[in-house]
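Thread title: Can someone regenerate the structure for this chain?

I was given the following input by a collaborator and told the matching structure tokens would be attached. They weren't. Posting the sequence so someone can regenerate them.
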Amino acid sequence: MTDLLYRADPYLQEAPARVTGHTPEGGIVLDRSLFYPTGGGQPGDSGWLVWDGGRLAIATTVKAEGGVALVPAEPLPLPPVGAEVRQRLDWTRRYRHMRVHTALHLLSVVIPLPVTGGQVGADRGRLDFDMPEPPDDVPALEAALNALIERDLKVTESWITDAELAANPGLVKTLSVMPPVGQGRVRLIRIGAGEDQVDLQPCGGTHVARTAEIGRVEIDKIEKKGRMNRRVSLTLAD
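Best answer:
Regenerated them for you:
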């Protein structure tokens, strides 16, 4: 199984690895990966692999049997199985994903309704809510969201068992995507601590360490998506 370095330290930008295999589609499997694979509404990471005699741009990362696979941006020779490589993350893109993803967690706080879908991007993100009627005051929602960001709350992780999650179904805010179970434990992302805790939910993505890193955000628009669903989009202001 691939050692998921991004989970232990989402701020790690460069690391060595060894090639353990190639997928039939031409992906590269490593023994340890900085690169987050597409999942949970968050895009796969991009960047570069460098090894003795070669350099390869990585367009995205996907889940694969035994871990994750890095997808080359061009049809160039792959590093051979067993090769020692250097991973270099497209940090600018990843960090913006981290900021947007954390902002969406806070959006689910200021709009405390069931979430029916979501998507993270490098500049903007969105959540779909089970929201029969549109909010009365969008500027007030935006102000509440930015007020949470400005509190500079700490973002941390912890783990619970599958059984503990089943006993606490209220932790799951998403209706369309359930957290991965069956491996014995589930990762929780907590924003704030003690009396300052504002959010706690299962999530496998990457997040900033403190909410102030998100910076100011703007709520772009609220679109009707079906009889009961509305899509709320936000954008990083810088």
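The first strand starts at residue 3 and ends at 4.
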